[in-house]
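Can anyone check this?
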Amino acid sequence: MDASLIISNILNPPILFFFLGMVAVFVKSDLEVPAPFPKLLSLYLLFAIGFKGGVELIKSGVTQEVVFTLLAAILMACFVPIYTFFILRLKLDTYDAAAIAATYGSISAVTFITAGAFLSELGIEYDGYMVAALALMESPAIIVGLILVNLFTADQGERDFSWPEVLRDAFLNSSVFLLVGSLIIGVLTGEHGWKVLEPFTQGLFYGVLTFFLLDMGLVAARRIKDLQKTGTFLISFAILIPILNAVIGIFIAKFIGMPKGDALLFAVLSASASYIAVPAAMRLTVPEANPSLYVSTALAVTFPFNIIVGIPVYLYAIDMFWR
């Protein structure tokens, strides 16, 4: 593999600022991002990527490839938590296994956005409808994870469990709601809406992404100490399962006939893990699961692995496979 691909990815300003955040924690700097600010940055990123996706979707239209891609996204979001649950059950109880499986069945919007920035840097085009795939993969894993808990625990009848509340949290949480809403507004306003908002959605995008990754570096470094509780099994899981999921995603992308840019984004969606929506849902509905396990593996291992090594390695594999 050409090492310049990884070096090129690492030398991107957003990635370097991610490292800067981690270094700040390791050297005990007092650098921090005030609490409400990261939330605003994440809302901006979801809005910008959703709106752009809607505009691109109306330009491309709903073709057979779009339909197959969206169906494949839903399939992966359901398949990954099921098969990983049984792997995790070898070492963990049902609650922890289901929570971690749901985390890895869902996706990381920031990893997706970073992969999009990487493709733009290399001049590789990708279709905006991949944002719709991102939105569709957020929620199914939460529902599958909760079904697994109810199927494999003995006290399901005694647990305080409300399906309406679970479904509401899965489909109407702030991330999914803003992303889907922005996508719809992008579809409705099209090229005219894009021109009106372009200075805000395009001009500020990389600066906001860079600052957001600085904060993510701070958070990820603070979570590293939690890995002492997970042991080598979960650390290995947090690296090997994303690679396996990316390989499955690449084969599906090839079968559907996606172009290289879309294939990378689909592989990244398949390989990423949620550290916002799913943990929030699991804390609410499966309080028996240990958050330090499913948050630290997704945020402190899988997220940095994907944005530093995974994205260029997956693109290299796609380059080889698409020849």
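Reply from J.R.: I decoded it. The chain is about 80% helix and 0% strand.
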